[in-house]
Amino acid sequence: MEQRNFCIVGLGLLGGSYARGLTEAGCRVTAVDVRGEAIRFALDKGWIAQGTTEDARPLLEQAEAVVLGLYPHALIDWVRANARFLRPGTLVTDVCGVKQAVVGPVQDAMPEGVEFIASHPMAGKEVSGVEYADSAIFRPANFIITPTERNTPRGIAFARQLAETLGFAHIAQLSCAEHDRMIGYVSQLTHAIAVSLMNANGDPRLCEFTGDSFRDLTRIARINEHLWSELFLLNRDALCAEIEQFEASLTDLKEKLQAGDEEGLKDLFRRSTARRAMFDR
């Protein structure tokens, strides 16, 4: 891609996977993180050329592109404190799972000539930290670009090139509002259901009797409470609407079950099977 000198701010699972993937693609990558051990690990692996836990200014001044791998509130705070060090022409993106609460404040904080183009890699694991970074998580995954009227064709092209360089399977473009509504359903609701399943029954013997279906449904219940509480609360209206829609669907199934409506149940199962098959194309 055109931009070859990247700085990753926040060297966690996603930031580390970006660093690894971009280095593998021939880019020069530096990193900023509060954890010295994260910087040392990435240096030892050869995923970054340079890193710091203190003064980010020298690395930011060198960067052609910056990836913000921070939690939402920390991202906004960090940008307000450090965006002044970015040189004109720098392109900035993020990995944040909510957009409406983040994009406006971040774009407002950018200095003249620096463009923030928001994006969301739909990839991850149930663990955190650069120690688990793996660029292979991007290959089967979706990548969402969420431009605003303040973005340029150059910024949008950069985000698309970044996704292509990292090897994402599919790239889509949504408004920030569309993104948050969609993510409220396909990501946040699924995590809410997994958490609720684990909390609905406290029998300590469950793990002795469960099968693959329960394991699959609750895989994402191993959840980072700090990150996901931020994501849920920042997108609460969309998530609450999706929970209500899910409650209505579950109630419909329960009512058919209570009524002994075999054909109604079969219809639900046929529809769910057909819709799920669309994901395997």
Automatic annotation (TrEMBL):
Classification via PROSITE patterns: PDH_ADH
Pathway as given in its UniProt record: Amino-acid biosynthesis
Protein name: Prephenate dehydrogenase
Record's keyword terms, sorted: Coiled coil, Oxidoreductase
Family indicated by similarity: Belongs to the prephenate/arogenate dehydrogenase family.
PANTHER family, per database record: PREPHENATE DEHYDROGENASE (PTHR21363), PREPHENATE DEHYDROGENASE [NADP(+)] (PTHR21363:SF0)
Record-annotated Prephenate/arogenate dehydrogenase domain positions: 4-281
Pfam families: PDH_C, PDH_N
Parts forming coiled coils: 236-263
Gene3D superfamilies: 6-phosphogluconate dehydrogenase C-terminal like domain (1.10.3660.10), NAD(P)-binding Rossmann-like Domain (3.40.50.720)
